[in-house]
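Sequence in, structure out. First:
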Amino acid sequence: QWSVSDPFPNPARNVVTFNHTIPHGTREAFILIQSITGATLKHIAIDPIRTNTQIDISNLKPGFYLYTFQMNGQPVAAGKIIITH
């Protein structure tokens, strides 16, 4: 059974965190952060043993971004992140 939380805090300034549960046997899991135009800005591999992942977003400009949580090449969750500075 998998689960992934919405990112928090949201809006965020420097770091955004996702809580997650990755099923045993998952080959790969990662989070993509993309610009509103679809350009991939971050591709973060998920450690399946951990229950959360923190992403440094301090180098991204304020604005709206999209995230996609993928497991084994398939999107399983998606949404928006607002970055403020």
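Second:
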Amino acid sequence: MRIRPRTPSPAALAVLVSLLASAAAMAAFDIISVDEEWSMRGQLHAEVAQKMPLVNDPAALDYLNRLGRQIAAQTPYGNRRWDFFIVRDDAVNAFNLPGGLVYVNSGLIKEARSLDELTGAMAHEIGHGAARHGTQLMTKAYGYNLIARLAMGRHPGQGRQLLAGLVGNGILNHYSRDAERAADRLGVHYAYQSGYDPRGMLDLFADLQKLQGRQPLKVEQFFSNHPLTRERIQNVSAEIATLPRNAALTRDSRDYQQFRARVH
């Protein structure tokens, strides 16, 4: 005799949803395990690949992945797979998705004049991933959509539909200011620990502020997702000041300039 699982009553579902929504409001609340996060990376990447033009240049991707994985190795999840992709888009932007996925626009590579500027931007996105900001946003979305953890388990079709909506609507990039501060702080340390000068992050900020005056549309998306407030710049500068001076930190390289020329 097969026992069918009981369907929760509407009242029980309402209580569950209320609890999930309340808990999801807490910054660190997350119902998605690390294993579950990495298991959904294939579906997430497939959604991006359908919607965005990705660069298919093995040499360029190999270089970007060597940089990215060197930085990701400094995180608590450095033993898991991280992949880095180039989006062919002149707009300046980069974003992270759960499961160690990082996407960098060709427009950002063009504007990042030195290696430490690019690694600063990448380290920031890796910081979002290491802090699991994306899965925290997914937890909120699950609560609001009444499907919680079941969407990824017993109802994979619903799960795929939800992931498509999260990627398509850009929900996974709408981080709070606290999340942006955390990603900056982590990014400074990850870049430094990887041997790259974290001052490149500040140099990139300065370059993008100048670009905003000349070509505001190119940085509109970046500033929308990563507001460059005076407080943010001051916080990054203060975090860098806490680090020991190291004259051996890399600021630029010939390999990077060749990669940059290849991409744009």
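Remark: Residues 6 and 259 are 57 Å apart (CA to CA).
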